[in-house]
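Researcher: Here's my situation. A collaborator sent me these components and asked whether they could plausibly form a single complex. I don't have experimental data yet, so a predicted model of the whole assembly would be a useful starting point for our discussion.
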Amino acid sequence: MITGTVTSVYGKDINTDDIIPAPYLQLSTERAFFAENAFIKYDPEFKERCKQSTINIVVAKENFGCGSSREQAVYAIKENGVACVIAESYPDIFYRNSLSNGLVLITVEDASGFEMGDEIQVDLDSSTIQNVTKGESTYFEMKTEDRNTFQQGGMIGRVRSHLEEILQQAEK
Amino acid sequence: MGQTMAEKIVSRQAGREVYANDKLERLPITKLFFNDVIGPPAIKGFQEDFTDVFEKCGKPPQVFDPKRIFFTPDHSVPTFAIPIAEGIDSMSEFSAKHGIRMYKEGDGIEHVVLIEDGHIVPWDIVLGTDSHTDTNGALGTLAFGVGTTDALYAMATGHLYDFVVPESIKFELTGTLPKGVYSKDIILHIIGRMGAGGCSKRVAEFAGPGLGSLTMDARTTICNMAVEMSARTGIMAYDDVLADFLKGRAQWPVDPIDSDPDADYADVLQIDLSALEPTVAFPHKPANTTPISRVQDMIERSQREPTPDFCTVQDDTITNAFLGSCTNARYEDLVAGAAIMRGHKVHPDVNLIVIPSSRKVYERAMDEGILQVFVKAGANIESSNCGPCFGSHMGVMSGKGKMISSSNRNYQGRMGSPDARIFLASPATVIASAIEGRLADPRKYLD
């Protein structure tokens, strides 16, 4: 169960240049650095808003995270204490990058019901979002394997086992 | 049941027949490349995530197959900051240790040099740490842009995990392009029609008799921008044009590929090339397209009903022009630009930057006097790299900047200040506009 506050509400087609501009990408390999510079041109108050709440939820319309494949965009969001994004759709690369890092992406048909300050509970097991502030409940669809990967915080465990399997087979 | 190319390629690698929406826990890949943006953190991740696994198995750390991995420092070269130089150092050390081919700074852009050097062949499953990896689909490959994690996992095991076979949308090209209209105009037109998210989760397959008239340079431009309508990737079949291109170049066995006639598509669209005009994308989205003849209407619309990603444009003047990037800086792009430039000067108010996409393109353009045309006209020529398209050097704009670019993205702030305006167009339109200091139709220079 993820319990948090909506601290950012965006429109459609938010791209990864908006989330973390190119000039910052190669200045560090520390995730905290990208959190520090998240939305620095597009929404300079993002970081401050995230500090107001322990667990943050980002809401957006369609195609959230489009554009460049930079995974730094996921670090920028997640390392600001964002546990989950609720949006109407995501392009594939951003979706995969979020899966890899355990940033939970929820897809809803219409995100317009979520507003700044709403207290939200997301239950991955029952696929429901409870908007505590508004007293509304929304069902969402998520593939079982994605749910498992989000809950495990990525697929690293499985990849390590696979590598071990490959190395042992090479031995034989 | 017939298969699309995407379904065929995945089937071959997976060793079983698969169709759209089938799931694979592990998909073997065949080529993998890293640029200087993602290479350094991927190397760090590889060491952090797997060193103990190698130790446990009593093996030295090793990549899955060094012959199939390439390092291409291209985004921020020549380097302009110490951490970037340190990142490239880490790529040099890692590639030397593991026997990976690493290109030199200035050799060119990842999506150009690997194709040029014959490393990409039909049936490949290509992963690259850049969203424009889709460019490689023009060679009958399934090519995906991936993030750091997918790439470093693939570097260790040669696999992509939890893969869902994508559906395809077919774009059937018919007719031939009129004079002054180029493949960039085709793909801008298509993106405008589909919207920024219009091809989401689908592979964009470009097919039809119209494709036969397009060279490989032209085709790669089209596949390059499939991601701008959120396509999973772009793809094109093997034909005589590709066969000729690969002859004497391919470093790997070449096997023809095409979709089956009875393959299942999510949608099929017809594009009549003969009806197209030079096309311009307005800021701040590649999907904001207009035929050049309707630019004034588009400007008025932007003033009447601006939105965050379709901003107000005051007039058609420009201050910057860029002929470069993985989209449009191959040999033929420079030839097309030079044909317009010859006998003219860059407008006094415009800074024109020309960046050939690879060292080989650079040398050929130099040998054939093409670079001289640009230099004599007042352009700035830079060594091969991503240039201002990446927005971190070589032409970063102030808030007063109004750029027309042959690259692929015109997001707000992409090339500097969030107040700058970026228009996208073909190399010919870029050069015509650089001459006139305003958005200009290249066709009148070709009569």
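Model: Some features of this prediction you could bring to your collaborator: The radius of gyration of chain B is 21 Å. The domain at 5-271 of chain B is CATH 3.30.499.10 (Aconitase; domain 3).
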